[in-house]
Amino acid sequence: MRILVCIRQGLDGEINPFDACAYEEALRVKGAEVTLISMGPISVKDFLLRLTRLGAKKAILLCDKSFAGADTLATAYTLSLAVKKLNPDLIFCGRQTLVGDTAQTGPMLSVLTDTSLITNVMSIDEIGDTVTCTTRDNGIQTVTTPALLTIERINNLRLPSIMSKLGEVEVWSAEDIDADIEKCGLSGSPTKVVKTFENESGKRKCKYITAEELPQVITEALKKRNDELVKTVSNTQKLDKVFIIGEGPRTFAETISDNITVLSLTNANDLAEKITKLKPNAVLWGSDSLSKKLSAQVAAKLNLGLCADCTLLETDGEELYMYRPTLSGSVIAKIVSRTKPAMATVRTTQNGADIMVAAGYGAKDSLDTVRAFAEKYSAEMITTRKAVDNDILPYSMQVGLTGKTVSPLVYIAVGVSGAVHHIAGMQKSGTIIAINSDKDAPIFDYADYGIVADIGNIVI
Ligand SMILES: Cc1cc2nc3c(=O)[nH]c(=O)nc-3n(C[C@H](O)[C@H](O)[C@H](O)COP(=O)(O)OP(=O)(O)OC[C@H]3O[C@@H](n4cnc5c(N)ncnc54)[C@H](O)[C@@H]3O)c2cc1C
């Protein structure tokens, strides 16, 4: 069994956390021959070499000046040529990178290499001529090999043993993989960043209240309707014809067009055919895991740009301007698509409880209190990565950059510090309430209401 693991070096110089999980899963497959592949500058060679100490015998670095500045589709194209040359049985990718945060490259690569696909893998249950995996949102799935799996944050990458040996790193250029350089790097990327600016949008003005006032604040917050929560702009010019896949993106679509057609979330072939035939100006998708997967597959099939996780759309009647948070949410990028129709996934309100209660690391000694509080309001319990890493609550409950994105009507953070990585997954919530013993905790900058108190000392 030959397994190819796609790896990206993060901005911190470390392996992208999801890719680390993909690598560890590959190393756990008995008898597998594991190869690493990465695209990047020549400095990545040493990083890959160090990673071979964990078990991969070989790593390939795709390095050529024509590869620089690639968006997800241009990256998937370049990787696909190397994959065809290596011909693995399985390709493992991390669910997403933290830099791009799109979750598109894996599904696009599966289309371009004609391999089966399972995304959001929580466990690999069986590997043979077929692969069976348990996924995060879509149950147990079985596909035939060759297959590509995108892996969630389900394990910890091993440390090198003292006996470990270095493998070898081969550097492949555009010529080595017969790449059409028009399809690589910046020039081959259908999406284009027009400008970037600092993101202040998540910040709110916090009103401090007492624990006694909390029930009244929750009741008032529940009265606000969901679609009032989506930030809208009034575009004077509109696009002629916009498709939405499922009802989720409707509120966004209404800001850019008066002519909206809904297609149901069927399969990538069917949707690609309809989009080609009916030629809309733009196609908007939701942000659930199925929409993310199908949108990336359709983009790869039709060679279209796809902007991920937009929080705002603008149009002058011709062009669609798509705004999305990037770099852990600290920066907003304004993006256009060079290909038509423009396609984007938009941050939609996920189906889920109206009220969510996040128990952070600071609530670790008061979990029973937080649980009883959540039950009283029929709320869903969620948590932070620090609580997960310390085995206080399970990963399935983790919200944030490396967890899930939620946007309930009411989000109540108990003992959560408000790190940007957590905020990225909850800042679209309706009303945000924070309970924290530290009056200077960053979470209060993102909250509408705050209670400064030790959770062990108040009644909620
Ligand atoms: C690459 C990367 C990705 C990440 N992805 C995520 C992610 O997806 N999701 C995520 O959540 N984090 C993520 N993190 C981690 C993130 O940076 C923070 O470390 C984490 O969110 C902190 O969790 P916390 O707020 O529960 O804990 P802490 O930072 O320890 O905060 C605990 C808070 O509880 C308060 N507190 C303590 N005791 C009490 C008490 N008795 N009563 C009331 N308040 C109390 C403290 O004042 C403090 O503000 C990521 C980090 C990195 C580097």
Describe this structure in words.
The radius of gyration is 23 Å and the shape is globular. Helices cover 22% and strands 28% of the residues. The protein has three domains: 2-183, HUPs (Rossmann fold), CATH 3.40.50; 207-225 and 351-457, TPP-binding domain (Rossmann fold, 3-Layer(aba) Sandwich); 231-346, HUPs (Rossmann fold, 3-Layer(aba) Sandwich). Helix 3 (72-86) crosses helix 4 (105-112) and helix 7 crosses helix 8. The longest helix has 15 residues, at 72-86. A nine-stranded mixed sheet has the order 7-6-5-8-4-1-2-3-9, with helices on both faces. It is α/β, with parallel strands linked by helices and 460 residues long. The chain contains eleven helices and 24 strands. The protein starts with a strand and ends in an 8-residue tail after the last strand. Flavin-adenine dinucleotide binds at residues 17, 98, 360-362, 384-387, 398, 400-403, 415-417, 419, 421-422, 425, 435-438, 441, 454-456.
